[in-house]
Amino acid sequence: MKLIINNYMANPTDLILIGVICGAIIAGYIYLQNEWVEVEKYKIGFPNLPKSFEGFKIVHVSDTQFPYNASSTRNLLALIRKQKPDLIVMTGDMIDRRGRDLVEDGTVEFCRELVKISEVYAITGNHEYTSPLYEEWKNLVKSSGICLLINEHVIFEKNNEKIALLGLDVDVPFHEDLFRTDLNEVKDMPRILLSHKPNLNKSFESDKNSIRPHLVLSGHAHGGQFRVPFWRGLYSPDQGVLPKYTFGLYQLKNNVRMLVSRGLGNSSFPFRLNNRPHMPVIILKRL
Ligand SMILES: [Fe+2]
Question: How far away, in angstroms, is 127 Cα from ligand 1 center?
Answer without folding.
Answer: 6
